[in-house]
Amino acid sequence: MSSDGQENSLNIRQDIKIYSGLFDGSEQEHFIIPENRYVYLHVAKGNLRVNDLVFNAGDGARIRHERQLKFSHGHNAEILVFDMRPVETNYPYR
């Protein structure tokens, strides 16, 4: 999902992009947090390492002061990453 339908994503009228990922075993991925944005991470299933912290099923985190997330060491993990604007910035969608 995205606010602009980028890469054939579902177009929604919010300033947000939602990514999903599956990690099991040796898969690794880096997510660069765009400038003036923050992310909310939710682990729906399994567990994995994000940077140097272990997240388990049901865990979530609002992340504002990182520029990059490294996902690794997944065990049957399903995650959602919400790329959002901080509330204090101006944007036409309200």
From TrEMBL:
Q: Which Gene3D superfamilies match?
A: Jelly Rolls (2.60.120.10)
Superkingdom field: Bacteria
Coiled-coil annotated spans = none
Which Pfam families has this protein been placed in?
A: Pirin_C_2 (PF17954)
Taking every annotated instance into account, which residue ranges of this chain make up the domain Quercetin 2,3-dioxygenase C-terminal cupin? 1-84
Q: Which PANTHER family match?
A: QUERCETIN 2,3-DIOXYGENASE
What is this protein called in UniProt?
Quercetin 2,3-dioxygenase C-terminal cupin domain-containing protein
Q: Which organism is it from?
A: Commensalibacter nepenthis
Lineage of the species this protein comes from: Bacteria, Pseudomonadati, Pseudomonadota, Alphaproteobacteria, Acetobacterales
